[in-house]
Design a protein that fits this description.
Helices cover 40% and strands 20% of the residues. The chain is of the alpha/beta class. Helix 6 crosses helix 8.
Length: 232
């Protein structure tokens, strides 16, 4: 079956352009003009990825992505927005988006970003850390089979990209993973976006995983990042 894409944008010209381009590229596309229509679609079909405009009347994209994350925490979401300030991009990623594409954009780029997100979603998980396949460091637990993360026994909600990033760091726990390795293995070799996306997602992970706990996610300046247990 073709991957199902939901395009949410209040501009009918943008929706028509994206529907045509994505359909031509082999996707099964549904479109919605606002948050209410988008939620109705998400409640009735098995959408694989959402393209979401930020600036919409009523509930905007930032509001909608939070509702989507509560209902479908594993569903990939890509923002399409004319708001290209760093604060807007950071906010979108922190709210759970897997990518943020600024307008004006190339439909070829949008297709490539969708394909990269879907590859990350369907790629095999990291090799087992133990017989049960669970990856651990101190009181942090990541279960690839059940897409579950816990810190100190409490669940931690992560977006699909955040989950893959944490899994990569835990797979190499105690060792430094370079920014290039992270881009290659989490975003894919064809990633053409901003390289500082790694810093933003690591910052998100720290906020969600380390907040209120001893820090496990470390920055090794000039080299990369590592997950290490606190020193005794």
């Amino acid at each position: 079956m073709s991957p199902r894409v939901l395009v949410v944008d209040d501009d009918p010209d943008v929706r028509e352009m994206l529907v045509q381009a994505l359909t031509f590229s082999g996707f099964d596309v549904t479109d919605a003009p606002d948050a209410g229509a988008a939620l109705a679609v998400l409640g009735s079909d098995g959408t694989d990825v959402v393209l979401l405009d930020v600036m919409m009347p009523g509930l905007d994209g930032f509001d909608l992505v939070q509702l989507v994350r509560r209902r479908e925490p594993d569903l990939p979401v890509l923002f399409l927005s004319g708001r290209d300030a760093v604060d807007d991009r950071v906010r979108g990623l922190r709210l759970g988006a897997d990518d943020y594409v600024t307008k004006p954009f190339s439909t070829v780029e949008v297709v490539a970003r969708i394909e990269a997100v879907l590859r990350r979603r369907t790629a095999p998980g990291p090799p087992p850390d133990a017989d049960d396949g669970v990856l651990r460091c101190a009181d942090l637990l990541l279960d690839p089979a059940h897409h579950r993360v816990e810190r100190g026994g409490a669940p931690v909600a992560l977006s699909p990209t955040e989950f893959r990033l944490l899994a990569l760091l835990l797979e190499h726990r105690g060792r430094v993973v370079s920014k290039g390795q992270i881009l290659d293995q989490v975003w894919g070799y064809g990633f053409g976006g901003e390289t500082n996306v790694v810093e933003r997602f690591v910052s998100n992970l720290r906020r969600k995983v380390d907040d209120g706990h001893p820090a496990l996610i470390r920055t090794v300046r000039g080299f990369g990042y590592a997950v290490r247990a606190p020193e005794a």
